[in-house]
Amino acid sequence: MAATNSRARDGGQRGARGQALSRIDKWQSYRQHHQTTLKSSALKILREPLQSLLTILVIAIALTLPSALYLSVENIRQLSGGVDASAQISVFVKKGARESALESLTAKLEGLSGVASVTYISAQAARDEFEALSGFGSALQYLDENPLPDSFLVRPLLIGDATRLVTEIRELKLVDDVQLDLEWLQRLDALLDMGRKLVLALGVALGLGVILVVGNTIRLAIQSRRDEITVVKMVGGTDAYVRRPFLYSGLLFGLFGAVVAAIILTGLGFWLAGPVNTLALLYQSQFSITGLGFGGFVALLLIGGSVGLIGAWLAVGQHLRNIQPR
Amino acid sequence: MSMIRFDNLCKRYESGYEALRGVSFEMDAGEMAFLTGHSGAGKSTLLKLLMLIERPTSGSLLINGKNINRLPHSKIPFYRRQVGVVFQNHQLLFDRSVFENVALPLQVAGYSQADTGRRVRAALDTVGLLDREKHNPIALSGGEQQRVGIARAVVHKPKILLADEPTGNLDPQLSAEIMALFKRFQDVGVTVLVASHDINLINRMDMRIMRLNQGQMEQDGVSYGGY
Ligand SMILES: Nc1ncnc2c1ncn2[C@@H]1O[C@H](COP(=O)(O)OP(=O)(O)OP(=O)(O)O)[C@@H](O)[C@H]1O
Ligand SMILES: [Mg+2]
């Protein structure tokens, strides 16, 4: 009894002078608190597997939908990129144009803005090609005159310029007819543009959804730990100290959700790879699906993590203030 | 210099009720006193002001010579680390062991693990519960739980120890033991203020007694004139 007493006395005086904690001690224990908080937050997620799984799945689905749409748009864009280069305008010249007139037309076509290249195909060359490709060569031989006109192939730099070029070319002298048979490509282009906007809208909407879901989960966690928070505040825990475990939980939920989303996306990729390859083979294309990739995975983690953190931050800001010792 | 000093302090709750009306008193460092009075006299309110759970409406409150009336919110945790509190409903956490309950004030302040272990065991030793450190507090008796609460209140060697009805539902024998424990902290230089209406018990302690009545300091002296 006496021994205990004297030990307590000694400690009391040391504590009163406030010399007990060095800066290094504080930094180490700060780091340690981060570590233990992270660990216990992870354990808490595991301790309530059903509730946690539900939250993580909701986050994963919310992340998967816009990501899948984004990947689809990107893949289609890549596919159409190959076709883009072959978009061309056929310009048919009136019969009987003179050599010099053809030359000036060539110059005019090349002078139009947005034109990548202009190729002249003489009537004779067109006929030869037609004979070689179609097998109707003998039929043409019965015709006195070559029915095919001289023509130009004009390649636009951008598929989006094609329509404007067609109207401009139509107004040129000597031009008989202009054909652009790739209008569907332009539609696809517009569609892809819409797709990208849809990805953004969907992403923002579902991102907000994730924030709400994480916020709600954290709100429940805060409520179930009300007593602990009160006591911690009573014994001198700072707001940052009280906030920390909940922020970690939100971050972990977001990260786990992102990982599950990546798994779903990868699975989806494998599932689609078979049919897409068959299709590509049929069209003699080298195309194959581009998946999430490492960069995409990192981006998904960043988005999931920050959205989870934001959700937790909002919930913590709203609900911790109300919990004060009384 | 006095450790605690109330200067003409008033506390009006948002409801408009005046719980404390012009209370003034001083306590020196290392002094122990009891705070008594009828139910609703303002005892808990006075302790809450000392914990900065409530803020004074007027008058000033000085701790160790420093006015804490306008202490910013962000500084409150650091102020509370100099104070230890024991409540009647002890507020122990039943999702962790006795050791972890007592360690809380140290963790919050950033003590190292080794330091924490040493101090927690010293505190548990003082309240006589060293052999229970691994138990869950729910498995302890009411008196033992109260002692765990006391260990938690003193583990970080506070300068001031506050207790609100610490013997509320304990039998006289246990109550006396708890009070003797408080006296031991006074012996090592802690300023101890205990709110209680267990008049019989505090009369036997032979200590300074402050009596509140309707929010006013009615009596402040060594012996209780009571009844
Ligand atoms: N948050 C509050 N809002 C409004 N009035 C309050 C609040 N807290 C306490 N009061 C009132 O202030 C008065 C003093 O309360 P306090 O808790 O300080 O009394 P007490 O002396 O501790 O009483 P008891 O012995 O019953 O614990 C009471 O009339 C109470 O109703
Ligand atoms: Mg009270």
From TrEMBL, chain B:
The keyword Phosphoprotein does not apply. It is found in: Cell inner membrane; Cell membrane. Gene3D superfamilies: P-loop containing nucleotide triphosphate hydrolases. It holds the Pfam family ABC_tran. GO terms for biological process: cell division. It comes from the Bacteria. PROSITE patterns: ABC_TRANSPORTER_1, ABC_TRANSPORTER_2. Keywords: ATP-binding, Cell cycle, Cell division, Cell membrane, Membrane, Nucleotide-binding. One of its GO terms (molecular function) is transmembrane transporter activity. Part of the ABC transporter FtsEX involved in cellular division. Important for assembly or stability of the septal ring. PANTHER family: CELL DIVISION ATP-BINDING PROTEIN FTSE (PTHR24220:SF470), IMPORT ATP-BINDING PROTEIN (PTHR24220). Belongs to the ABC transporter superfamily. This is Cell division ATP-binding protein FtsE.
